[in-house]
Amino acid sequence: MNSISEQALVQQQHKGITKTKLAKRIFFIIFGAVLMGVGIEEFLVPNKILDGGIVGISIILSHLTGWRLGLFIFVLNIPFFFIGYKQIGKTFALSTLLGITVLSLTTSFLHDWPVFTEDLLLATVFGGIVLGAGVGIVIRYGGSLDGTEILAILANRRLPFSVGEVIMFFNIFIFGTAGFVFGWDRAMYSILAYFIAFKTIDIVIAGLDESKAAWIISDHHKEIGDAILARLGRGVTYLTGEGAYTGDDKKVIFCVITRLEEAKLKSIVEELDESAFLAVGNIAEVRGGRFKKRNIH
């Protein structure tokens, strides 16, 4: 019995993805890496604006040495490919290697192309958006274009700082160095571009149609659940809970809605039970189940 369970576990661990999903992953990793390359070479680098992380260091070294940016991006990220292979897995490492290779080739190919704009503000805003969109797409499909996060994960195990704090310290050092190399106005534009890229990454990963989870506790759970189904077209699940103070059994309504439906959900709950407990939170992704919206009566 034990050996059968172990065999089943091994089969689950080594179960590969379909060719269609693999092709889709490869396509979007390449597409995201090309987008990031466009953001770097057509907006940021010609205007002496930096990105954070390994790419930021690569831009500084390329400026100081005169060597191609793509060479530094590839060479500096190679150690993180091996670290990612050991710490996160083969699929992540190979996806990262593909993304970094395409990014390096794209920056080299676009190096001598005419830039899209020399206006610093436009270059900062659109460079940050294009770069962030590219990074977000690659992350969403299982890869990475910068070894900083892997470095931060390793440092987090030995230092009393979170992953986010390590990345922040790392980027403060990079943007501080940029101030001495390119001037402090360019360093400030670089911080703005980095912030725009960071927010764009969030949007791409979470999706524009952000979903929300709602938990409702009410003595009128059946009426509220039926109303959500009929007037919002959303399925609900009844969970069983127990009040810690009273010890009473409670029914908890759980449902997933879009952010555009949040106001209507609140009005339904208030209409049927003004004293109902309602909690709404953001969720990044919804899969499976019966999330698809039904027809409203």
Summarize the helices and strands and which ones pair or pack:
Elements: H1 2-13, H2 19-44, H3 53-65, H4 69-87, H5 90-110, H6 120-140, H7 148-158, H8 163-182, H9 184-206, E1 211-217, H10 221-232, E2 237-242, E3 249-258, H11 262-272, E4 277-283
Antiparallel strand pairs: 1-3, 1-4, 2-3
Description:
The protein is α+β, with helices and mostly antiparallel strands and 297 residues long. It contains 11 helices and 4 strands; from the N terminus they run αααααααααβαββαβ. The chain has helices at 2-13, 19-44, 53-65, 69-87, 90-110, 120-140, 148-158, 163-182, 184-206, 221-232, 262-272, and strands at 211-217, 237-242, 249-258, 277-283. A 4-stranded antiparallel beta sheet has the order 2-3-1-4, covered by helices on one side. A hairpin with a 6-residue loop joins β2 and β3 (249-258). The radius of gyration is 24 Å and the shape is elongated. It starts with a helix and ends in a 14-residue tail after the last strand.
Concise overview:
64% of the residues lie in helices and 10% in strands.
